[in-house]
Design a protein that fits this description.
Blueprint: E1 3-6, H1 16-25, E2 30-36, H2 48-55, E3 61-67, H3 75-81, E4 85-89, H4 96-105, E5 109-114, E6 132-136, H5 151-165, E7 170-174, H6 182-188, E8 192-195, H7 197-200, H8 205-213
Parallel strand pairs: 1-8, 2-3, 3-4, 4-5, 5-6, 6-7, 7-8
Family: Belongs to the ribulose-phosphate 3-epimerase family.
Keywords: Carbohydrate metabolism, Isomerase, Metal-binding
GO molecular function: D-ribulose-phosphate 3-epimerase activity
Length: about 220
Amino acid sequence: MAIIAPSLLAANFLNLQAECDIVNASEADWLHFDVMDGQFVPNISFGPMVLEFVRKVVKKTCDVHLMIEDPARYAEVFKKAGADHLTIHIEACPRLHQDITYIKSLGMKAGVAVNPHTPVSMLSDILHEISIVNLMSVNPGFGGQQFIPYTLEKIRQLKQMITERGLDVLIEIDGGVTLENAKEILDAGADVLVAGSTVFKAKDPVATIAQLKTL
């Protein structure tokens, strides 16, 4: 069964308490935090302070995705704010192995994200060290984009690498996930669906999450 991770980026920030209550009442497994710095991506979202407040009420695993330059310098801050997982971009980390080791030493599960143009073969030497691969299925920086179809082939390639090595690594898909394409994404080998607008813009977010869980 798929792991469903609604993305807070698409929530109503005028009423985050209500949005957290919706997630708590649903079958969602994780709550996904897209952190942007305006440098690695052309947008600014939110930081550890939002996570700290949300963590006080949300009952789900907090899955933090840092779309920022030099992300390891903020690892301890996000750990203290309540992150359970911390995912950093391969494109932003010239010392990726060192950064992953540091994240794990803080007691978080470590993940690596790859942009649409980055081949999954780039993960070959780090795959055994991590728990999650976040395959960006849109160009990072903004919510509400359309899913890039070639991501399906990248999922299959990555799944083969994981299976051949007997690893326990989750494939997370982030961007453009909808009720219409979710099954195809899961059939390709994905484990985790990050769903922002699909969940928080739905008339009934709880029912939408339940529907995604049945695929």
